Automatic annotation (TrEMBL):
Boundaries of every MmgE/PrpD N-terminal domain copy: 20-260
GO molecular function annotation: 2-methylcitrate dehydratase activity
Catalyzed reaction equations: (2S,3S)-2-methylcitrate = 2-methyl-cis-aconitate + H2O
Protein's recorded name: 2-methylcitrate dehydratase
Organism of this sequence: Rhodoglobus vestalii
Length: 497
């Protein structure tokens, strides 16, 4: 890896194109490298993972709505849509499938300077691959690039402290991945990356306060914009330049300002793209910072039956800055303690999540968020006694670049009514590569089977899995097998289309 120095340039400094971050990204994306065996295996795992969580969300309102929109844009040959038998225009397939994958907040994650769900790259790249007649090997290379670019950007550039949504890193990465998929030249990918970034910067209000259904739509929109950006660039259309470094560009006015300086790690030309191996998936349907806390709460609930609302004075989770200020009490969002809050809001309330996992000793992607579950009196009472507090050491470990030290959990201190205290800590989720039960192919397949049970016919489950594990060998005509089918009507209120 080599660090690319990134700063703002005055217009009269005339930064050469070859020195711009978007061009460096395009150079990487225009290389056609064969993935390593480990990377190939992980791409297959994440395709299965995406399909699992998309399948579990097929009847949820945001997914039904997005699918209905997509079905109004049929195309030939077109791209497949989860839960539909129709083929649609690739940007609309990216949209519908992106919403399905993201709706339950249940797929892979990478956290560093910023946040990301790099699996969001798969829907737009797959959609373009299907529409343009690419093979499984082409798709594999494209997905590897998408993961590489997004994770490299997330390692270096913090968006959230400026309240810019993390999908601003997804637009460029998806455009780069599509460029690799199609074998485009550096100049075309450069223009596409710039356009994709320019059109996908938005505020983090989508993840603040009363969180709406747009939380699932935000990455889908970025994927859709990436497809459209590549299409325009292929037609010779250009982007604002320099998009990152310009005097009126992203860094100067949306991020750290005119004096900003970043070091973005990027692979050398010819170097294997292995960033996907740094990411990790979710065992539980909740914000990633909640994963370890769910595992710890379940364990405490099993080992300490005395942990009931009548015996607990208060619970304090000592944790990282992000957990405290984004999903904890430091966010100062009253909605995070509201039993009538939306599922999207409860998903971002660590106080709620810890309480339910402690009481139930389990976590379910539907039942744990059900209105009747959230409104249970003993849950509401205990929930209000749970707060978070930033701990400098857990914040340091959260931002550590050492994988063996990086942590997403913290220390819980439970004060009992009799004056005794229970104190335990957890660094990473059980499913994390360094956790108690790391996910491997077996666990990804189990997750898919579990979430597909009762949703898909058994032969459809087996058909999809047989195709997914053969991803690198799939022909162009077989690439449509990387979706799930069934009778899932997309009936919603009528819109424009």
């Amino acid at each position: 890896m080599k660090n690319h120095s990134l700063r703002v340039y005055r217009s009269d400094e005339n930064l050469a194109r070859e020195g711009q971050l978007a061009h460096k990204i395009a150079e990487i994306a225009s290389e056609q490298l064969e993935p390593t065996d480990a990377v190939t295996d992980m791409v297959i795992n994440r395709v299965i993972d995406n399909a699992a969580v998309a399948t579990a969300s097929l009847t949820r309102a945001p997914v039904v709505s997005a699918r209905a929109q997509a079905e109004r844009h049929p195309a030939e040959p077109g791209s497949t849509v989860f839960g539909s038998d129709l083929r649609v225009s690739p940007e609309w397939a990216a949209w519908a499938n992106g919403v399905a994958v993201r709706e339950l907040d249940y797929h892979d994650t990478f956290l560093a300077a910023d946040y990301s769900h790099p699996g969001d790259n798969i829907p737009p790249i797959l959609a373009v691959a299907q529409h343009t007649g690419r093979t499984g090997a082409d798709l594999l290379r494209g997905i590897v690039t998408g993961y590489e670019i997004q994770i490299d950007l997330v390692k270096a550039i913090c968006l959230h402290k400026h309240k810019i949504d993390h999908v601003a890193h997804l637009g460029p990465s998806a455009a780069a991945g599509i460029g690799t998929l199609l074998g485009l030249d550096t100049e075309t990918i450069f223009q596409a990356v710039g356009q994709a970034l320019h059109t996908t910067t938005a505020t983090r209000q989508s993840r603040k306060g009363e969180i709406s259904t747009w939380k699932a739509y935000a990455p889908a929109f970025a994927g859709k914009m990436a497809v459209e950006a590549v299409d325009r660039a292929m037609r010779g259309q250009t982007s604002p330049t320099p998009i990152y470094e310009g005097e009126d560009g992203i860094i100067a006015w949306m991020l750290d300002g005119p004096d900003a300086y970043y070091e973005v790690p990027l692979p050398e030309l010819g170097e294997p793209r292995t960033a996907i191996l740094d990411s990790y998936t979710k065992e539980h349907s909740a914000e990633y910072q909640a994963q370890a806390w769910i595992d710890l709460a379940r364990k405490l609930g099993r080992e300490h039956p005395e942990l009931t609302v009548d015996n607990i004075n208060r619970i304090v989770l000592h944790t990282s800055h992000h957990t405290h200020y984004v999903i904890g009490s430091g966010a100062n969002d009253p909605q995070k303690y509201d039993p009538n809050a939306s599922r999207e809001t409860l998903d971002h309330s660590i106080a709620y999540i810890f309480t339910v996992a402690l009481q139930d000793q389990e976590w379910h992607h539907v039942n744990s968020y059900a209105p009747e579950r959230a409104n249970r009196p003993d849950t509401v009472e205990l929930w209000k006694r749970v707060t978070t507090q930033e701990d400098a050491e857990w914040t340091r470990r959260y931002h550590s670049i050492d994988p063996a030290e990086k942590a997403f959990g913290g220390r819980v201190e439970i004060e009992m009514t009799d004056g005794s205290r229970i104190v335990e800590e957890i660094a990473v989720a059980d499913a994390h590569p360094l956790g108690a039960r790391p996910f491997a192919r077996e666990q990804y397949i189990t997750k898919f089977r579990t979430l597909a049970d009762g949703v898909l016919a058994s032969d459809e489950i087996e058909r999809f899995l047989a195709a997914a594990v053969r991803l690198p060998e799939l022909s162009a005509s077989e690439l449509g097998e990387l979706t799930v089918r069934g009778n899932f009507p997309a009936t919603t209120a009528k819109g424009i289309f």
